[in-house]
Give the backbone structure.
Amino acid sequence: MKRATLIRRIATAAKRSGLDWGQVASKGNHEKWRLGTTVQVSIPRHTEINEITAQAILKSTESELGEGWWK
């Protein structure tokens, strides 16, 4: 999955749910993003993100966006 697509999918879902989504820190090969008030996600700075990694990132946002929201 493209990195931009992953970020856009989460941003769109966050906007629909009325949650904040933004970059918190940028260091090394990863960026930290915050969803709502509780979830922090680490996203690699690669153009292409492995599907397994992308699914794990999407799954980590379930506590704020709801179970299986990306399916």
Q: What stands out?
A: The two ends are 14 Å apart (CA to CA). The chain has one domain: 3-65. DSSP finds three helices and three strands in the chain.
